[in-house]
Design goal:
Elements lengths: L5 H7 L2 H11 L1 E4 L5 H9 L7 E6 L6 E2 L1 E5 L5 H24 L10 H10 L8 E6 L3 E5 L10 E6 L7 E3 L2 E6 L6 E5 L6 E5 L2 E6 L2 E11 L2 E12 L5
Antiparallel strand pairs: 1-11, 2-4, 3-6, 4-5, 5-14, 6-13, 7-11, 7-14, 8-14, 9-10, 9-13, 12-13
Helix pairs in contact: 1-4
């Protein structure tokens, strides 16, 4: 398998460190999963309307400013491969998190099996999406929850280079912890990097086991330029 394929880079990642970072911070950065050429290819999809099932202008719904588009099935080849390749690396971590937080649902070994579960429950609309931000655009803090079956992680890929293609527009992650003050992180990303982050909550160890800290993510205001991101959400929508 050629070195520049996303599957090769995903397989080569330090997944023990990814799990450690997710458990400590609620996110983990996987550097250089996509080549610059692949990033440009994916960003160019934004203008190919036939690839998408819907377009959302954030300002209309008080989500922020900017726009995003949900892909339709069948997904573009690289998007489907990213979803298929990341899921089996994350599913065992997801099952350990659910066990720690005493959440009953467990996740099967492959994404095809999980998608069947989603579709049987009426969650049949694909959720991978492309987002575009321009000057003064931003995204409010939120969680991507689309139905009863929620995979606890998602991946975000930055498709442009900060400082060259845009200024501002940092990825923000906030955590609300019932036992200590909340916190916020700016997640550092370069073109081609991915971040895996907790969709809803993460387990936090205490003297009596684990409790849940709740997380949200968003994007700070873009000062200039243009910023595209690819979002890989593993559960489909109702």
């Amino acid at each position: 398998m050629p070195h520049d394929l996303p599957e090769t880079r995903i397989a080569a990642a330090d997944w023990r460190a990814v799990e450690d970072n997710l458990g400590r911070d609620g996110y983990a950065v996987l550097p250089s999963l996509l080549t610059p050429a692949r990033c440009e290819e994916l960003a160019g999809y934004f203008f190919q309307d036939a690839r998408f099932r819907s377009r959302i202008v954030m300002e209309r719904y008080a989500f922020g400013r900017g726009e995003y588009k949900y892909f339709s099935y069948p997904l573009p080849d690289v998007v489907g491969r990213l979803r298929q390749s990341l899921y089996p690396r994350l599913a065992p971590i997801a099952n350990r998190w659910h066990a720690a937080m005493r959440i009953e649902e467990r996740f099967p070994a492959t994404h095809d099996e999980f998608r069947e579960i989603c579709h049987a429950a009426g969650q049949q609309r694909p959720t991978p999406l492309l987002l575009r931000y321009r000057a003064d655009d931003y995204c409010c803090l939120h969680q991507d929850l689309y139905g009863d079956h929620v995979f606890p992680f998602q991946a975000i890929f930055l498709l442009n280079e900060p400082g060259r293609d845009f200024e501002g527009g940092e990825l923000l992650l906030t955590e609300t912890n019932p036992k200590r003050p909340g916190r916020a992180d700016v997640v550092p990303l370069r073109q081609g990097d991915a971040v895996v982050l907790a969709v809803n909550h993460r387990p936090v160890r205490s003297a009596r086991g684990f409790y849940r800290a709740h997380l949200r993510h968003g994007v700070s205001r873009l000062h200039e330029g243009q910023r595209h991101t690819l979002g890989i959400i593993f559960h489909d929508a109702s």
